[in-house]
UniProtKB/TrEMBL annotation:
Keyword tags: Membrane, Transmembrane, Transmembrane helix
Entry's family note: Belongs to the SAT4 family.
Annotated source species: Fusarium mexicanum
Pfam families per the UniProt record, alphabetical: Fung_rhodopsin
Name of the protein described by the UniProt record: Integral membrane protein
Domain named Rhodopsin: residues: 37-272
Major site of localization recorded for this protein: membrane
Length: 342
């Protein structure tokens, strides 16, 4: 077997595996830096939470995804099938097969991390119920997807070694169905915090800023849609998988790692520098109360007694402080040109 390095063309043989190789390096380094920054920001204030642990495990899973993708490239993934020797072809397809599992695990953990963050901020009973329902759907279809991926052929080896007389599921329908479910759950996770935010007794601008921060995950949904298009195109010619599945693999890597980055953005709180307000963009405690409590202003107790409104206090702690999310400041500067009724 020949090591094709980073997937660049050599000896007159077509090879565009380098697209996958470079994408995997750029995305894993980027997502890794965001996770490190997130952990530093969180640990400087308090201990890491369950959402932080989930995103760390997701990063580890993404590293495994990139590793197996690069191993597939070393064995000729990115070349035409006819240009590969049988041992190389089998090994390239095997690495591609293995990479599918950490991809699905990464996507699942990204959504779980986002929901766990929501649960730290909004603690009303109805919201928690819906959050756990959505989390159950995400974890359930992900476990089902991973199981179907592993046992898509019986024996399992038949998934990458076509010399076996294996019984396999219709992988075309499975891939499309999984991709559609992935997009639907993306939308469900994005929609979760919108209603609690809109119920806050604060200005429209502040509500809009909060919504924009949580809706940054919409970029992941866009990449999921683009991946579905790529998957659909690749299924038209499965006879040359090692060549035709490259663009699909690129979007797979982008989606998985962009999900990690999007999950980190609401947590990162770094000073903007000279252009940022000295005290950040604060939400006054008295403004963060539900309509039902509008006639009963929050009174902060200094006697050590329990806070009667922990949900509102959690949102306030997240939204205030001397160090803030850079994107929040950028958004605020942009929306400062607009006038909203308080």
């Amino acid at each position: 077997m020949i090591d094709r390095g980073m997937g660049f063309p050599a000896d007159g043989v077509d090879n565009h595996g380098w697209k996958l190789y470079i994408t995997s390096l750029v995305m894993i380094i980027s997502s890794g830096l965001f996770v490190i920054a997130r952990c530093i920001a969180r640990y400087s204030i308090h201990k890491l939470g369950s959402d932080d642990v989930a995103i760390i495990v997701s990063l580890i899973s993404s590293v495994l995804l990139s590793t197996y993708i690069q191993l597939a490239i070393h064995h000729g993934y990115g070349m035409h099938k006819e240009d590969l020797e049988k041992p190389d072809l089998r090994m390239a397809l095997k690495m591609f097969f293995i990479a599918q599992t950490p991809y699905k695990a990464t996507v699942c953990l990204n959504k779980v991390a986002a929901i766990l963050l929501y649960l730290r901020l909004f603690v009303t009973k109805s919201f928690r119920v819906w959050s756990f329902v959505v989390m159950g759907v995400v974890v359930g279809y992900s476990i089902g997807g991973i199981a179907a991926t592993i046992w898509q052929c019986v024996p399992i080896k038949g998934a990458w070694d076509k010399s076996f007389d294996a019984k396999c599921i219709d992988s075309n329908k499975f891939w499309v169905a999984y991709a559609v479910l992935n997009i639907l759950t993306d939308v469900m996770v994005l929609a979760l915090p919108i209603m609690p935010i809109m119920r806050l007794q604060t200005s429209r601008r502040e509500k809009l800023l909060l919504c924009c921060i949580f809706l940054l995950g919409g970029f992941v949904t866009i990449t999921s849609i683009l991946r579905v298009t790529s998957v659909s195109n690749s299924l038209r010619n499965k006879k040359d998988m090692t060549w035709n599945f490259i663009d699909r693999g690129v979007w797979t890597l982008i989606e998985a790692n962009l999900g990690i980055i999007a999950a980190c953005l609401p947590v990162l709180r770094q000073p903007m520098g000279p252009g940022a307000p000295a005290k950040g963009y604060n939400f006054k405690p008295e403004s963060i109360r539900s309509p039902r409590m509008s006639e009963n202003p929050i009174k902060v107790s200094t006697t050590g007694r329990a806070d009667p409104y922990p949900a509102r206090r959690r949102v306030d702690r997240w939204a205030t402080g001397s160090a803030h999310l850079p994107l929040l400041a950028l958004l605020a500067e942009g929306f400062a040109l607009l006038t909203f009724e308080a």
